[in-house]
Write a structure and sequence with these properties.
Layout: H1 9-15, E1 22-25, E2 31-34, H2 36-42, H3 54-59, H4 73-80, E3 84-92, E4 95-107, E5 113-122, E6 126-127, E7 135-136, H5 140-152, E8 159-162, H6 169-178, E9 187-191, H7 197-205, E10 206-207, E11 219-220, H8 222-225, E12 229-234, H9 241-253, E13 255-256, E14 265-266, E15 269-275, H10 279-284, H11 290-296, E16 299-302, H12 313-323, E17 331-332, H13 334-342, H14 348-362, E18 367-368, H15 379-382, H16 400-409, H17 414-421, H18 425-434
Parallel strand pairs: 6-7, 8-15, 8-16, 9-12, 12-15, 17-18
Antiparallel strand pairs: 1-2, 1-5, 3-4, 4-5, 10-11, 13-14
Keywords: ATP-binding, DNA-binding, Nucleotide-binding, Transcription, Transcription regulation
Protein name: Fis family sigma54 specific transcriptional regulator
Pfam families: AAA_lid_14 (PF25601), PAS_4 (PF08448), Sigma54_activat (PF00158)
Length: about 425
């Protein structure tokens, strides 16, 4: 590591022995030094980007992140003189990746900022590219949920996943588990929907032989099965009121009894719960216990509906087609993709996957066209003159490569492109200027 600031020499020597990628930045965004882990993961043996601007290296921007509508940790750290943390999508030798960035200012004797130390951790559970086995997305709405997941996963806090049916709550729950210290333990799913009170109790806590008619052997419950790992209670809003009392006792005391037993057993699990129901409203109406609600909602995470992350649809479509193709390549025409992005997707990811599975069977030549999609899907919005690829605040978070491609291929004027993206012309001009266009 190399820099001209003698005050930083002890720090640089220390960082070199850190196993996580770390860099030192000056207040003008220049990379002063990079440890071996950073060179290995984000640079190369002969090029660690020393002297280059961090926003150009990480994102391909010509200006700092906050000037293109993103969260810049250096700006926040400079204002607070304290650490700041954000999840970004970074360019790496392997392509774009989600990276958890933590930046801390280094102060001189007079309290001024001498430099910044940035620690970068690649998020293994998600990817901004099509993937067969990870969470997929790159929109602002998706990244916000992923950032919350990264913050809570290392802790022991209960997590409550909120979102419409089909938004991927079980996948997020598994990602919480895999990013936690309990990752080597079991991940046990309990589907709370449709279970009667008696069945719910016996499934959760287990039972002794002879506890009831048909109990011919002792059975271990799912709470015991989850020992050392994570217990995922899916559709928590469907838990019967009478069982909510016993569930509250389990969470508060960490103990339980099998059905038909007087022996108290110790539980050892991390709780993740999920529901598509409005639990706060159910509490107000007396349909869900208030004390249980406060116990499970220590860290709520909202999972966005698919219509809140429309710019992820091409990526998700490619992912689903790749996962279920059986080795047969299938692609979408631009017109078919436009229909997909125009639909509101009340069934979310589950509906998108089903639509693509059906279209794949109809596309004999491996090309999915609008006629292979359900009749009327996305038609009204796909051909409206002011139709937009995305709606809401997520439109501000187009990735540089996508925006550059769109800017060079869009057939209309800049004004029409701005309307297409849901931006003002001034915002579009600023974004394109940052990309050097």
């Amino acid at each position: 590591m190399d820099t001209d600031a003698p005050e930083l020499h002890p720090l640089l020597s220390f960082l070199e022995h850190e196993t996580e990628p770390m860099i030192v930045l000056d207040p003008d965004y220049r990379i002063l030094a990079a440890n071996t882990a950073y060179r290995r993961q984000f640079g190369s043996a002969d090029r660690a980007h020393l002297g280059e601007k961090c926003y150009r290296v990480s994102h391909g921007y010509a200006v700092p992140c906050d000037q293109v509508g993103e969260h810049c940790p250096m700006k926040r750290a400079a204002e607070s003189l304290g650490p700041d943390r954000v999840l970004h999508i970074h360019h790496t030798p392997r392509g774009p990746e989600h990276v958890d960035v933590e930046l801390r200012p280094i102060l001189d004797r007079r309290g001024g900022i001498l430099a910044y130390v940035e620690r970068l951790s690649t998020v293994r559970s998600a990817t901004p590219r099509a993937s067969g086995d990870r969470l997929v997305g790159r929109s602002a709405a998706f990244n916000a949920a992923l950032e919350a997941l990264q913050r809570v996963a290392p802790s022991t806090l209960p997590v409550l996943l909120l979102g419409e049916s089909g938004t991927g709550k079980e996948l997020f729950a598994r990602a919480v588990h895999e990013a936690s210290p309990r990752a080597q333990g079991p991940f046990v799913v309990v589907d709370c929907s449709g279970l009667t009170e008696t069945l719910f109790e016996s499934e959760l806590f287990g039972y002794e032989k002879g506890a009831f008619t048909g109990a011919t052997t002792r059975k271990q419950g799912l709470v015991e099965t989850a020992a050392g790992g994570t217990l995922f209670l899916d559709e928590m809003g469907d838990v019967p009121l009478a069982m909510q009392v016993k569930l509250l006792r389990l969470i508060e005391t960490g103990t339980f009894r099998r059905v038909g037993s007087v022996e108290t057993r110790q539980a050892d699990f991390r709780l993740v719960a999920a529901t598509h129901k409005p639990l706060a409203q159910m509490v107000a109406e007396g349909r869900f216990r208030q004390d249980l609600y406060y116990r499970i909602s220590a860290f709520p995470i909202h999972l966005p509906a698919l219509r809140e992350r429309r710019e992820d649809i091409p990526l998700l479509a490619e992912t689903f087609l790749r996962r279920g193709g059986g080795g047969r390549p299938v692609q979408l025409t631009p017109q078919a993709l436009q229909r997909l992005q125009a639909h509101d997707w009340p069934g979310n990811l589950r509906e998108l996957r089903n639509v693509l599975d059906r279209a794949r069977l109809l596309a004999d030549d491996g090309v999915i066209r609008p006629e292979h999609l359900p009749a009327g899907l996305g038609e009204a919005r796909a051909f409206a003159p002011d139709a937009r690829v995305a709606t809401g605040p997520v439109t501000a978070r187009w990735q540089p490569a996508e925006l550059r491609r769109l800017a060079t291929t869009f057939p209309g004027t800049r004004r029409e492109l701005a309307a297409h993206l849901g931006w003002s012309e001034r915002t579009l001009y600023r974004r394109l200027k940052a990309l050097g266009l």
